[in-house]
Write a structure and sequence with these properties.
Elements lengths: L6 H18 L7 E6 L6 E7 L4 H10 L3 H9 L26 E7 L20 E7 L2 H11 L16 H9 L5 H10 L4 H8 L3 H18 L8 H9 L4 H8 L3 H7 L4 E5 L12 E5 L5 E3 L5 E4 L5
Helix pairs in contact: 5-6, 6-8, 7-8, 8-10, 10-11
Length: 309
């Protein structure tokens, strides 16, 4: 999980990736190497290497704004990275590693209903029929946007598991399956602690804590109505990725009334450089933040307010 790695571990992975690529014999072009890490020893293991541009490459390009396939093609005909400009900034060369100021979440899409004879237990075998990607300012926002993007008719971490018994919840957390994250959320609703869920799932505690915080805030929201919730709480809910439909359920109102009350959507830039350089051809992702600054005709910031991020 990238969110739990140190800078030192990132550098180790860079070095290992180059070593693997050189060992395979790839001198130029696009490749991707996938690793797993033993959380107890810190050891890394290579689990997959693609000596070509793949589906993962397309996702990485979209996540960072860096055109991997285009750059790889130019390298193949003799260019070097320092000779190629970044199309978005027009100032930095392609040798600059992309820097991002947002969180990207990728989740595989499963459809076991169409393949009913298939064992739905998730293993190292590929069983997904696709994948989705979501971008947000925080992990919570990105994660909840990603869950909705699966197009399963689910609008958050609630899918109506309150009538399931504890033993089923436990088994669904132990056995890797497509609904595991929703069962983990239900366990937190029932007061299970992080250590207990970690012992069953072995999912990194950082992620379990993020889910727990979402559920705790969900409980707070369920005790309020649209008349009693504050603007700050409603803005926090949107920053944390709660959908209008989910907020309507929790606050016992309609989506239309939520939209009338909440802050407007804002759009942030994917520019490969975290706004360090001017972006000429960026694209955008949606988020929810109050205005943090205003620029006058002389391009001077005349108002400013800190935000959660």
């Amino acid at each position: 999980p990238a969110m739990t790695l140190s800078d030192k571990e990132y550098q180790i992975l860079r070095d290992y990736s180059i070593a693997v690529i050189r060992e395979i014999g790839v001198e130029t072009g696009g490749s991707n190497v996938q690793f797993s890490q033993n959380p107890k020893t810190g050891e890394f293991y290579v689990i997959e290497m693609n000596p070509r541009v793949s589906r993962s490459s397309a996702l990485a390009s979209k996540a960072t704004g860096f055109p991997i396939a285009k750059i790889a093609a130019k390298l193949a005909v003799g260019y070097t990275l320092d000779e190629l400009p970044n199309d978005i900034t027009k100032e930095t060369p392609a040798s600059f590693e992309p820097t991002i100021d947002y969180i990207v979440t990728k989740i595989p899409r499963f459809d076991f209903k169409k393949f009913q004879e298939t064992d739905s237990t998730l293993t190292t075998m590929m069983k997904s029929v696709g994948e989705i990607m979501a971008i947000g300012r925080t992990f919570k926002e990105s994660f909840q946007k990603a869950l909705r993007s699966l197009e399963l008719g689910r609008y958050g971490l609630y899918i109506g598991l309150e009538n399931e018994n504890d033993e089923k919840i436990r088994q669904k957390i132990i056995k890797p399956n497509e609904d595991r994250v929703w069962y983990i959320a239900e366990a937190f609703r029932r007061g299970w602690d992080i250590d207990e869920i970690y012992s069953l799932s072995h999912i990194d505690k950082w992620f379990l804590n993020q889910i727990k915080e979402i559920i705790e805030f969900e409980k707070e929201l369920s005790n309020k109505t649209l008349a009693t919730i504050t603007d700050y709480e409603l803005e926090k809910a949107k920053k944390w990725g709660f959908s209008d439909k989910e907020l309507a359920r929790l606050l016992k109102t309609t989506e239309e009334k939520i939209r009338e009350r909440r802050i407007d959507v804002s759009y942030k830039v994917v520019d490969t450089c975290a706004a360090e350089f001017r972006a000429y051809t960026p694209y955008y992702y949606s988020s929810y933040e109050s205005l943090v600054g205003k620029i006058n005709e002389n391009r001077e910031i005349i108002t400013y307010r800190d935000t959660e991020n």
